[in-house]
Design goal:
Helix content: 10-25%
Bound molecules: zinc ion
Distance between the termini: 33 Å
CATH superfamily: Ribonuclease Z/Hydroxyacylglutathione hydrolase-like
Number of strands: 12
Structural class: alpha/beta
Number of helices: 7
CATH class: Alpha Beta
Strand content: 25-35%
Order of helices and strands: EEHEHHEHEEEEEHEHEHE
Shape: globular
Amino acid sequence: MIGCSCNICTSDDSKNTRRRCSLYVVADGQHLIFDTPPDFRDQVLTFGVERIDAVFLTHPHADHIFGFDDVRRFSDLQQSHIPVYGSPRTIKQMRKKFDYVDRKSHSFGGVPRVSFIDQTKSVSVGDVRVTPLPVSHGADTVYGFRVDADGARLGYIPDCNGIPESTLKLLKNMDVMILDGLRPKRHLTHFSIDESVEMLGRIGARQSFITHLTHDSEHHALQARLDDTITVPWDGLKVHL
Ligand SMILES: [Zn+2]
Ligand SMILES: [Zn+2]
Ligand SMILES: [Zn+2]
């Protein structure tokens, strides 16, 4: 937290240093990024992301999209347009906030070369299937994603304070579930940690993770009070399926 000197913000333990939420999935020869937060460039440099075949955006809040410009390095490296998927509302906001991306006069470099695509149902990237998961985030409907690849199933919902039954039906037999659990205290647009734990119990994935944590949670103290099925993740954590 900017301007905070609490014991978590000043901790020497790297597990207490949290960048913004993002997920990188490598499966079946495809490389997918979920959200491009403001520290996206630092994240891809720190954790060695060298290729992106598609970008998926959960919603157009600043903490999930404002690192988007650095996708341009990947479109340069790969010499191709990168598809960017999001709900029609998210894509409309992206075209507005990154209006220079679509301008023809810049088509020879210096900007991300991408194709913005409205996503309202499952899409395939190679053999990887990505399904949008509508959820509540305060008054808004935003999206998580289910990823099916090579017989494995992963769910990612970083911002959410309610999951409708129709979406819960899409979260059966999950190998990995990653869910918003902002802080101990309740919040108007995010699950609290207890609400997240309860929802993760209902979903019943083989491995569960709580994300979007604030400086209210010390890594080891939080892990100690959760059971074995739920992991408190840390920046750079890799999970092999
Ligand atoms: Zn703090
Ligand atoms: Zn949000
Ligand atoms: Zn957020």
